Amino acid sequence: MNDYANHAVALAVVRYASRPADRGHPPPIFSIGAFTCERVNDWEARFTESHVVYASDDPWRLPITHVKSLLRRDSHVVTCAPTERPTSRRTRKDLDLLLPGTKELPRAHRRIFRASDERLSQLGWQFDLELNHQDMTVLQQARSAARRAQAAWLTSVGAVHDLPTKSALFTAYRAWRVVQNVMPIRF
Questions:
Q1: What is the pLDDT of residues 77-101, one digit of tens each?
Q2: Listing from the earlier edge strand, what are the strands of the sheet with 110-114?
Q3: I need a labelling partner for 42 at 20 to 30 A (CA). Which of 18, 23, 75, 183 fits?
Q4: Domain range spanning residue 46?
């Protein structure tokens, strides 16, 4: 079972709506949802999720600092992006926009999966993970960022070729979701 990273971080980045003042720069980050999978051994994994919202006047480095705090030198980072863009070539700009704070990682450790919102919703349904996609506002996108990060991670596991690894990760995730679903709501 060596077909998947020992430390994987999935990100879902939500940005404020574009403004004329941005002048070709990406809008500031509004929210980051992150999901981390740390493999303990071949059959066991630990999961954590985080969800942070930023004010539009927060320093631009704050979200990057948060992402960097989640990473290790051996981390593999993934995200999902809409399928509207051609899938044949990913650029450094794509990686930097969709995976902020990960420039220090080798390019092979940063991966963008192309998936439609419908595909992510279908995947979420299979794992009891509610994902809405119809005409979401920025606030609604931010609310679902942690779940979208989980969907990105599930997409990356779906690409694993080693069936025992894939099965073990999916099983561990399902068990983690059961525990999460019975935990009291945090305020």
A1: 999 887 655 444 556 677 778 888 8
A2: 44-53, 29-41, 7-15, 76-81, 110-114
A3: 183
A4: 7-180
